Amino acid sequence: MKLKIATTKQEVALNFSRYLAILIANREVVHIALSGGSTPKIVFDELATNFQEDIDWSNVHLYWGDERCVPPTDNQSNYKMTVEHLLSKIDIPEENIHRIKGENSPEYEAERYSEILGEWIPKKNSIPHFDLVILGMGDDGHTASIFPHEINLWDSEKLCEVANHPETGQKRITLTGKVINNASVITFLVTGESKKEKVFEILKKEGNFKKYPASLVQSESGKVLWFLDSAAASMITPN
Ligand code: 6PG
């Protein structure tokens, strides 16, 4: 568990972008699962604005760790957010974008996307082996779209499951722990004061950490990196 703590969200985005540029440069073909939510927007803006010359996207394949079951034109779509903040601003082959089709029936799409992962991504332990899975963490300790009330989905035998948002009931498609933990590298992008308690509990294995899906993330290869700002890290760093 390695930590990279920056003062501001912008610096987190810069730190992560630098890390990503090196990771991509060191691989022939790269398979990356993106996270949704608001934190990645800052990273995508940084990549689109300041890393145009540093990253060759031609051999990068992009997937999503989770997606809301809404059309790709819906403002809640993680894909739509990624198009607006990144994909519309970089030169990446259309065929390298493997979006979760939120407009499909959830059960059908979970199955279809599992097959896509199997078709495109090399395997390790007979499981699709992402080079990088990028995750966020909710205030409740969820990650991808596995929430505490459905933490059992983490241990599903499937590669993708249908999840339900605890408040809105919104259906989501999510990768499961089986494929997330099989990744070569897993990075968390976590910023803001509202995350500090869960960051403390999970990283220090305190309190109810076992109830939080984010605490179940542990790459088989051992590389889990947390990119944090000082607000999110304020309970684990000395004053
Ligand atoms: C989503 C995300 C979700 C997100 C966390 C943190 O679809 O919402 O994949 O898991 O990473 O909710 O979101 P923020 O980074 O916006 O706090």
Descriptors:
239 residues; alpha/beta; Rossmann fold; 27% helix; 6-stranded parallel beta sheet
Rounded to the nearest angstrom, the radius of gyration is 17 Å
Main beta sheet strand tally, sense and closure: 6 strands, parallel
- In total, the number of strands is 11
Order of helices and strands: EHEHEEHHEEEEEHEHE
Give the name of the CATH architecture: 3-Layer(aba) Sandwich
Straight-line distance between termini = 21 Å
Ligands present:
6-phosphogluconic acid
- How many helix segments? 6
**Low-confidence region ranges:** none
Strand content: 15-25%
What is the CATH level 1 assignment?
A: Alpha Beta
Q: Would you write up a description of this structure?
A:
This protein is an alpha/beta fold and 239 residues long. The protein has a single domain, classed as Rossmann fold (3-Layer(aba) Sandwich), CATH 3.40.50. The chain contains six helices and eleven strands. The strands form three sheets. A six-stranded parallel sheet has the order 1-11-10-7-2-3, with helices on one face. Strand 2, helix 2 and strand 3 form a beta-alpha-beta unit. The mean pLDDT is 97. The structure holds 6-phosphogluconic acid. 6-phosphogluconic acid (6PG) binds next to loops.
